[in-house]
Amino acid sequence: MFFEKLGLAKTASLAAWLVLSVSCFAGPVGMPGALAASEETSKALVEGMTAPDWTLTDQDGKKIKLSDFKNKKNVVVFFYYKDDTPVCTKESCSFRDSYEKFKIANAEVFGVSSDSPESHSKFKTKNNLPYDLLSDKDGAVRKSWGVPTDKGMPGRYTYVLDKKGTVKKIYTGGMFESKQHVVEALKSLGDFGVSAY
Predict the structure, then answer these.
(1) Which of 44, 111, 47 is nearest to 83 (CA)?
(2) What pTM was computed for the model?
(3) In Å, what is the CA distance from 28 to each residue of 12, 25, 36, 152?
(4) Buried/exposed code over 114-153 (b: 16+ C-beta within 10 A; e: otherwise)
(5) How far, in Å, CA of 56 to CA of 54, rounded?
(6) Residue 175 exposed, middle or buried by CB count within 10 Å (0-12, 13-18, 19+)
(7) Domain with CATH 3.40.30.10 in the chain
(8) DSSP states of 75-113 as a string?
(9) How far apart are CA 20 and CA 66, in angstroms?
(10) What is the pLDDT along the chain (197 residues), one digit of tens a residue?
Protein backbone atom coordinates (compact mmCIF):
# COMPACT_ATOMS: atom_id res chain seq x y z
CA MET A 1 0.00 0.00 0.00
CA PHE A 2 2.85 2.38 0.84
CA PHE A 3 4.44 2.01 -2.58
CA GLU A 4 1.07 2.28 -4.40
CA LYS A 5 0.56 5.68 -2.73
CA LEU A 6 3.93 6.75 -4.10
CA GLY A 7 2.82 5.64 -7.55
CA LEU A 8 5.24 2.71 -7.69
CA ALA A 9 4.47 -0.66 -9.20
CA LYS A 10 4.71 -3.65 -6.90
CA THR A 11 7.57 -5.08 -8.97
CA ALA A 12 9.55 -1.94 -8.30
CA SER A 13 8.76 -1.78 -4.61
CA LEU A 14 11.84 -3.58 -3.35
CA ALA A 15 14.20 -1.52 -5.50
CA ALA A 16 12.46 1.68 -4.41
CA TRP A 17 12.73 0.71 -0.76
CA LEU A 18 16.46 0.09 -1.13
CA VAL A 19 16.97 3.47 -2.80
CA LEU A 20 15.01 5.24 -0.06
CA SER A 21 16.97 3.42 2.66
CA VAL A 22 20.36 4.33 1.18
CA SER A 23 19.28 7.96 0.79
CA CYS A 24 18.25 8.18 4.44
CA PHE A 25 21.38 6.63 5.91
CA ALA A 26 24.07 7.88 3.54
CA GLY A 27 22.94 11.50 3.43
CA PRO A 28 22.97 13.77 0.38
CA VAL A 29 25.75 13.49 -2.18
CA GLY A 30 28.81 15.39 -0.97
CA MET A 31 27.59 15.46 2.63
CA PRO A 32 28.87 13.39 5.58
CA GLY A 33 27.22 9.99 5.83
CA ALA A 34 27.84 6.27 5.99
CA LEU A 35 29.11 6.00 2.41
CA ALA A 36 31.30 9.09 2.68
CA ALA A 37 32.79 7.79 5.94
CA SER A 38 33.64 4.46 4.29
CA GLU A 39 35.40 6.17 1.42
CA GLU A 40 37.35 8.37 3.83
CA THR A 41 38.39 5.43 6.00
CA SER A 42 39.54 3.39 2.99
CA LYS A 43 42.19 6.01 2.23
CA ALA A 44 43.55 6.16 5.78
CA LEU A 45 47.14 5.30 6.62
CA VAL A 46 47.69 2.20 8.72
CA GLU A 47 50.70 1.14 10.73
CA GLY A 48 53.38 -0.39 8.53
CA MET A 49 52.64 1.86 5.55
CA THR A 50 54.97 4.53 4.20
CA ALA A 51 53.61 7.99 4.93
CA PRO A 52 52.97 10.18 1.86
CA ASP A 53 55.44 13.02 1.53
CA TRP A 54 54.43 16.62 1.98
CA THR A 55 55.84 20.14 1.94
CA LEU A 56 54.18 22.58 4.33
CA THR A 57 54.86 26.12 5.53
CA ASP A 58 55.83 26.65 9.16
CA GLN A 59 55.09 29.56 11.49
CA ASP A 60 58.01 31.55 10.05
CA GLY A 61 57.08 31.08 6.40
CA LYS A 62 59.72 28.39 5.88
CA LYS A 63 58.96 25.33 3.74
CA ILE A 64 59.32 22.03 5.60
CA LYS A 65 59.51 18.79 3.61
CA LEU A 66 58.84 15.49 5.36
CA SER A 67 61.23 13.45 3.20
CA ASP A 68 64.15 15.68 4.27
CA PHE A 69 64.14 13.75 7.56
CA LYS A 70 64.26 10.32 5.94
CA ASN A 71 67.18 8.17 7.19
CA LYS A 72 67.99 10.96 9.67
CA LYS A 73 65.27 11.22 12.32
CA ASN A 74 62.08 9.71 13.61
CA VAL A 75 59.15 12.04 13.04
CA VAL A 76 56.07 12.70 15.17
CA VAL A 77 53.19 14.49 13.45
CA PHE A 78 50.13 15.45 15.45
CA PHE A 79 47.09 16.85 13.68
CA TYR A 80 44.98 19.14 15.80
CA TYR A 81 41.83 21.17 15.31
CA LYS A 82 42.76 24.80 15.86
CA ASP A 83 45.20 27.17 17.54
CA ASP A 84 44.17 28.55 20.93
CA THR A 85 41.34 26.10 21.53
CA PRO A 86 41.41 24.60 25.06
CA VAL A 87 42.14 20.92 24.35
CA CYS A 88 44.49 21.61 21.44
CA THR A 89 46.42 24.05 23.61
CA LYS A 90 46.76 21.41 26.34
CA GLU A 91 47.94 18.85 23.79
CA SER A 92 50.46 21.25 22.24
CA CYS A 93 51.82 22.15 25.68
CA SER A 94 52.08 18.45 26.58
CA PHE A 95 54.32 17.93 23.56
CA ARG A 96 56.28 20.99 24.70
CA ASP A 97 56.73 19.63 28.21
CA SER A 98 58.05 16.30 26.87
CA TYR A 99 60.06 17.77 24.01
CA GLU A 100 63.42 16.89 25.55
CA LYS A 101 62.36 13.23 25.65
CA PHE A 102 61.53 13.36 21.96
CA LYS A 103 64.97 14.84 21.28
CA ILE A 104 66.59 11.99 23.21
CA ALA A 105 64.60 9.58 21.01
CA ASN A 106 65.98 11.40 17.94
CA ALA A 107 62.48 12.48 16.93
CA GLU A 108 61.34 15.68 15.27
CA VAL A 109 57.89 16.92 16.35
CA PHE A 110 55.44 18.79 14.13
CA GLY A 111 51.98 20.11 14.92
CA VAL A 112 49.66 20.44 11.91
CA SER A 113 46.38 22.31 11.53
CA SER A 114 44.62 24.42 8.91
CA ASP A 115 45.57 27.65 10.68
CA SER A 116 47.69 30.22 8.84
CA PRO A 117 51.44 30.61 9.48
CA GLU A 118 50.63 33.93 11.17
CA SER A 119 48.24 32.25 13.58
CA HIS A 120 50.79 29.52 14.25
CA SER A 121 53.46 32.11 15.00
CA LYS A 122 51.31 33.77 17.66
CA PHE A 123 50.26 30.42 19.13
CA LYS A 124 53.84 29.15 19.25
CA THR A 125 55.14 32.32 20.89
CA LYS A 126 52.29 32.54 23.39
CA ASN A 127 52.84 28.97 24.62
CA ASN A 128 56.65 28.77 24.19
CA LEU A 129 56.42 25.78 21.88
CA PRO A 130 59.89 24.50 20.89
CA TYR A 131 58.79 22.65 17.75
CA ASP A 132 57.41 23.84 14.41
CA LEU A 133 53.73 24.29 13.63
CA LEU A 134 52.78 23.63 10.01
CA SER A 135 49.93 25.09 7.99
CA ASP A 136 47.79 22.62 6.05
CA LYS A 137 45.42 25.38 4.99
CA ASP A 138 43.47 23.48 2.33
CA GLY A 139 43.55 20.20 4.27
CA ALA A 140 45.45 18.41 1.47
CA VAL A 141 47.86 16.58 3.81
CA ARG A 142 45.09 15.66 6.23
CA LYS A 143 43.18 14.21 3.28
CA SER A 144 46.17 12.37 1.80
CA TRP A 145 46.89 10.75 5.18
CA GLY A 146 43.22 9.86 5.63
CA VAL A 147 42.71 11.78 8.86
CA PRO A 148 38.93 11.72 9.37
CA THR A 149 36.61 14.28 10.86
CA ASP A 150 34.85 13.80 14.20
CA LYS A 151 31.38 15.35 14.46
CA GLY A 152 32.27 17.78 11.68
CA MET A 153 35.58 18.77 13.25
CA PRO A 154 39.03 17.78 11.96
CA GLY A 155 40.18 14.70 13.88
CA ARG A 156 43.05 14.84 16.37
CA TYR A 157 45.44 12.08 15.27
CA THR A 158 49.09 11.50 16.13
CA TYR A 159 51.48 9.62 13.83
CA VAL A 160 54.93 8.30 14.69
CA LEU A 161 57.24 7.56 11.75
CA ASP A 162 60.56 5.77 11.90
CA LYS A 163 63.64 6.97 10.05
CA LYS A 164 62.53 5.14 6.90
CA GLY A 165 59.25 7.06 6.87
CA THR A 166 57.23 4.02 7.90
CA VAL A 167 54.26 4.55 10.20
CA LYS A 168 55.11 2.91 13.54
CA LYS A 169 52.16 4.16 15.56
CA ILE A 170 48.84 5.88 14.97
CA TYR A 171 47.04 7.19 18.02
CA THR A 172 43.50 8.37 17.49
CA GLY A 173 42.51 8.91 21.10
CA GLY A 174 39.50 11.14 21.54
CA MET A 175 38.60 14.74 20.80
CA PHE A 176 39.04 15.64 24.47
CA GLU A 177 42.28 13.81 25.21
CA SER A 178 45.49 15.78 25.31
CA LYS A 179 48.48 14.26 27.11
CA GLN A 180 47.73 10.67 26.09
CA HIS A 181 48.83 11.52 22.53
CA VAL A 182 52.26 12.35 23.92
CA VAL A 183 52.36 9.24 26.10
CA GLU A 184 51.56 6.90 23.20
CA ALA A 185 54.05 8.62 20.90
CA LEU A 186 56.87 8.28 23.44
CA LYS A 187 56.02 4.65 24.14
CA SER A 188 56.26 3.85 20.45
CA LEU A 189 59.73 5.41 20.49
CA GLY A 190 60.82 3.19 23.38
CA ASP A 191 60.12 5.44 26.36
CA PHE A 192 57.77 3.53 28.65
CA GLY A 193 58.44 5.67 31.73
CA VAL A 194 55.70 8.13 30.93
CA SER A 195 52.17 8.63 32.19
CA ALA A 196 49.17 10.75 31.24
CA TYR A 197 48.69 11.68 34.90
Answers:
(1) 111
(2) 0.76
(3) 22, 9, 10, 15
(4) bbebebbbebbeeeebebbbbbbeeeebbeebbbbeeeee
(5) 6
(6) middle
(7) 44-188
(8) EEEEE-S-TT-HHHHHHHHHHHHTHHHHHHTTEEEEEEE
(9) 45
(10) 433 444 444 434 434 333 333 333 333 333 333 223 333 433 789 999 999 999 999 999 999 999 999 999 999 999 999 999 999 999 999 999 999 999 999 999 999 999 999 999 999 999 999 999 999 999 999 999 999 887 778 889 999 999 999 999 999 876 677 789 999 999 999 865 554 43
Distances (CA, A) of 171 to 118, 185, 189: 28, 8, 13
Contact 96, 179 (CB under 8 A): no
CATH number of 44-188: 3.40.30.10
**Alpha-carbon gap, residue 149 to 154, rounded angstroms:** 4
- Active-site positions read 88
- C-alpha 183/C-alpha 194 separation (Å) is 6
* Phi, psi at 69, each rounded to 5°: -95, -5
